[in-house]
């Protein structure tokens, strides 16, 4: 088992550190900035169905559902197609409306999640076109899909999903860009720029992973907190949700993810000097707005931990603790900002003495409803 973990103490840590490689493998042969191309057979073969869809419905559970939320932002912005993101367990039972031409994107690491599988079977019977974004080759969801793209993240052993999530984000980004290009809903300049931004991601993730002692120290400082709040806006809102989920799964600390502005409508009541609030405050179109959200928490004596862009001098002045990530276009930002949150939950769980690879009550793949 020690050999399988490649020198790491846990699969989770190994898989977090594999991400520069797994994201690279996901992009390899597909993302070709030199020629301005994205090669994805499953998309090319069905491009008309995809770009002419009146609506795209994303169906997933857990961490994969968070990837679906990022996909909603990406596809709506670049392709101008309405997107809905559904919990598979709700979608399957509420007699959802599926209309002619609707496309369903299924996102699943294992390809075996029961709720997702049955939701797709139902939608397929009603005539929907199913596009699968799956990690596990040949899995049930991969076989049920009309077309798809594998994430190529390799086997994920840690129960808490890490590298599969960034693989999903990489596929979704390529998919959105490829569709947008075919549809003509993105400028050539923006498209080319994003191809390069995406290509630079593996190296930037490697840079984050190079030195994690700061994150470890933050984990140590806050590990006895009973609650955590995770806040983000825009593309980083799903990242906040994922950060909260990771912490719950691994450290058993109650955590909630929220849109940073929506926090005023409830969670702000929880803020006192004992509540750590993790903000994703990387430089994007919402930067000024989230800076004021940070001020609102500080005014109520909350402890603020920020994920900020390298070179930011404003945030470290306000926050109790800051973790820096390399600058990137906001459309690919989640691929970077989620990594420190994965590490934070890993180190909190570790320092609390829990089995991070096998958290209590959780299953790697939920094959019963
Ligand atoms: C379980 C796992 C999660 C995962 C979710 C969905 O809850 O513990 O890590 O995100 O199932 O799984 P899937 O394989 O469909 O992505």
Automatic annotation (TrEMBL):
Q: Per its UniProt entry, what is the enzyme's top EC class, as one word?
A: transferase
Localisation? Cytoplasm
Q: Gene that codes for this?
A: glmS
Q: Where is the SIS domain?
A: 46-190, 218-359
- Its main localization is cytoplasm
Could you mention a single GO BP entry for this protein?
A: UDP-N-acetylglucosamine metabolic process
Report the portion of the entire protein shown.
Answer: 244 to 612 of 612
Summary of subunit composition and partner proteins: Homodimer.
Give Gene Ontology CC terms.
Answer: cytosol
* Enzymatic reactions: D-fructose 6-phosphate + L-glutamine = D-glucosamine 6-phosphate + L-glutamate
Q: Sorted alphabetically, which keywords does the UniProt record give?
A: Aminotransferase, Cytoplasm, Glutamine amidotransferase, Repeat, Transferase
What is the role of this chain? Answer: Catalyzes the first step in hexosamine metabolism, converting fructose-6P into glucosamine-6P using glutamine as a nitrogen source.
Residues in the active site? Answer: 364
- Give the Gene Ontology MF terms in alphabetical order: carbohydrate derivative binding; glutamine-fructose-6-phosphate transaminase (isomerizing) activity
Q: Which organism is it from?
A: Phnomibacter ginsenosidimutans
Enzyme Commission number(s): 2.6.1.16
What's the protein here called? Answer: Glutamine--fructose-6-phosphate aminotransferase [isomerizing]
């Amino acid at each position: 088992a020690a050999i399988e973990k490649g020198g790491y103490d846990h699969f989770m840590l190994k898989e977090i550190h594999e991400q520069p490689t797994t994201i690279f493998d996901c992009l390899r042969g597909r993302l070709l900035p030199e020629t301005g191309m994205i090669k994805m057979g499953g998309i090319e073969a069905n491009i008309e169905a995809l770009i002419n869809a009146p609506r795209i419905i994303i169906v997933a559970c857990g961490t994969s559902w968070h990837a679906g939320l990022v996909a909603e932002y990406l596809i709506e912005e670049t392709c101008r197609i309405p997107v809905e993101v559904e919990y598979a367990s709700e979608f399957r039972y509420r007699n959802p409306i599926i209309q002619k031409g609707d496309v369903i994107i299924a996102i699943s690491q294992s390809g075996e999640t029961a709720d997702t599988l049955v939701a797709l079977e139902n939608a397929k019977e009603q005539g929907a076109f199913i596009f699968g974004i799956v990690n596990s080759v040949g899995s049930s969801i991969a076989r049920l899909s009309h077309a798809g793209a594998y994430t190529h993240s390799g086997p994920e052993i840690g129960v808490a999903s890490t590298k599969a999530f960034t693989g999903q984000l990489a596929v979704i980004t390529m998919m959105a860009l490829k569709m947008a290009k075919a549809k003509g809903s993105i400028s050539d300049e923006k498209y080319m720029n994003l191809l390069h931004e995406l290509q630079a991601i593996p190296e930037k993730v490697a840079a984050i992973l190079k030195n994690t002692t700061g994150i470890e120290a933050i984990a140590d400082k806050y590990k006895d907190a009973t609650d955590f709040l995770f806040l983000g806006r825009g593309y980083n809102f799903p990242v906040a949700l994922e950060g909260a989920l990771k912490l719950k799964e691994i450290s058993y600390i109650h955590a909630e993810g929220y849109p940073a502005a929506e926090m005023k409508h409830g969670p702000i009541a929880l803020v006192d000097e004992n509540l750590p609030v993790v903000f994703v405050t990387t430089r994007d179109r919402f930067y000024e707005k989230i800076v004021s959200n940070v001020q609102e928490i500080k005014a109520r004596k909350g402890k603020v931990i920020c994920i900020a862009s390298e070179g930011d001098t404003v945030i470290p002045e306000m926050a109790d603790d800051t973790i820096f990530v390399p600058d990137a276009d906001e459309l690919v930002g989640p691929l970077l900002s989620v990594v420190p949150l994965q590490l934070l939950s890993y180190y909190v769980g570790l320092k609390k003495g829990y089995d991070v690879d096998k958290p209590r009550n959780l299953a790697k793949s939920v094959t019963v409803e």
